[in-house]
Amino acid sequence: xxxxxxxxxxxxxxxxxxxxxxxxxxxxxxxxxxxxxxxxxxxxxxxxxxxxxxxxxxxxxxxxxxxxxxxxxxxxxxxxxxxxxxxxxxxxxxxxxxxxxxxxxxxxxxxxxxxxxxxxxxxxxxxxxxxxxxxxxxxxxxxxxxxxxxxxxxxxxxxxxxxxxxxxxxxxxxxxxxxxxxxxxxxxxxxxxxxxxxxxxxxxxxxxxxxxxxxxxxxxxxxxxxxxxxxxxxxxxxxxxxxxxxxxxxxxxxxxxxxxxxxxxxxxxxxxxxxxxxxxxxxxxxxxxxxxxxxxxxxxxxxxxxxxxxxxxxxxxxxxxxxxxxxxxxxxxxxxxxxxxxxxxxxxxxxxxxxxxxxxxxxxxxxxxxxxxxxxxxxxxxxxxxxxxxxxxxxxxxxxxxxxxxxxxxxxxxxxxxxxxxxxxxxxxxxxxxxxxxxxxxxxxxxxxxxxxxxxxxxxxxxxxxxxxxxxxxxxxxxxxxxx
Length: 484
Prior knowledge:
By secondary structure, the chain is mainly alpha-helical. It has three domains: about 5-130, Rossmann fold, CATH 3.40.50.620; about 135-165 and about 210-300, Serine Threonine Protein Phosphatase 5, Tetratricopeptide repeat; about 310-480, Orthogonal Bundle (DNA Cyclobutane Dipyrimidine Photolyase, subunit A, domain 3), CATH 1.10.579.10. The protein has helices at about 20-30, 50-70, 80-90, 105-120, 150-160, 195-205, 210-225, 225-230, 245, 255-265, 275-300, 320-325, 335-345, 350-365, 370-380, 385-395, 410-420, 425-430, 435-440, 450-455, 470-480, and strands spanning about 5-10, 30-40, 75-80, 95-100, 125-130. The chain has a five-stranded parallel β-sheet with strand order 3-2-1-4-5, sandwiched between helices. Strand 2 (about 30-40), helix 2 (about 50-70) and strand 3 form a beta-alpha-beta unit. Helix 10 (about 255-265) packs antiparallel against helix 11 (about 275-300) and helix 15 (about 370-380) runs antiparallel to helix 16 (about 385-395). The radius of gyration is 24 Å and the shape is globular.
């Protein structure tokens, strides 16, 4: 007797390798029906912004091609999810719907309802798996059984646990149903932006599982050994840039973890202790990603409200003009403007620079971290709700393990320290590229002769600072005093 079909509901797990839901479907023995349902209205703050919609378009295209190579296909539908799944269960006579879990508040609630509905009203199995994290958020607890709010003991706990299970290979083939259900065309989902902005994304990124694997291999071939030193220098390719691939599930954290362990154990590479420490530093970034999901799961109000309640009364300013200048990279601080322009052009920004631009917004300008988070959600290809929320609350001093609000980054010193030779600023702020290193990060201190020689006219082709650093710092500290 033929086994009933299984629907694999793809979400943020757009890969074939180490995909627990897909492997569950294969092991059940019947036909496998891969499905992606586009329903952003059901995802709350986790709904994809413009940059992620571009990525999603190309990642779905790549997944469809990969599935076709296994004799299968990807069925696309639009929400509501319940209507789409109900129709597919009926058309395929499926006996089960399987998927990999997500952890955003609105999605958790939606998925609970879907699971109950499938089991009790559709009379099919509904099973979810973990493909997105090393450990479930509820598995990691303090000695008192409470969730963590500080990263270091959280990371120490993770490293004390048994190794995450090894990744499993992709299936060799997928059994097709006797008749495929109808599918919406990818283009009709309207994911790709119409403006030329998308061209800059395409020059930098290769969405899809193959692109993720190539990115991982390139990192361990070139950058991993020097990661400890190179990761803070935005002018070089010193980081893995795996974050958008991890967000969309084109590669899983178990794959990254075990690749790193294998890299350290490879005797041919002859890694010394310092180089192994650098790889562990890289893995700690995977730990921060786990921590972000841990905090989001246990404190689901944080995308809208600060984890530390006193910051709900913080005297934020509403200044649309200054917010727009920040968004467009026109603040007059070169390292900030370089970062914001890199973001808009490529959908990504170096992590060190994310901290610098964030500090200027919430401290110098006293514009709420929620405004920064919203801009990042729309423009980052890796705008993961958990990491984005944790990062902005860290900058704003109001979240888990946050930087104290009184610690105000000096954008001049940050630029001079992490972009000493000006390679990053000259790449993204070409109108001041002719300035010498000594004044590149503080053009207003250059003499008229130096400015003229470099073709820089402050206030004309490059702005004066949006606020003087000392004044911004003093205003930020005064605002902090107001809520004490």
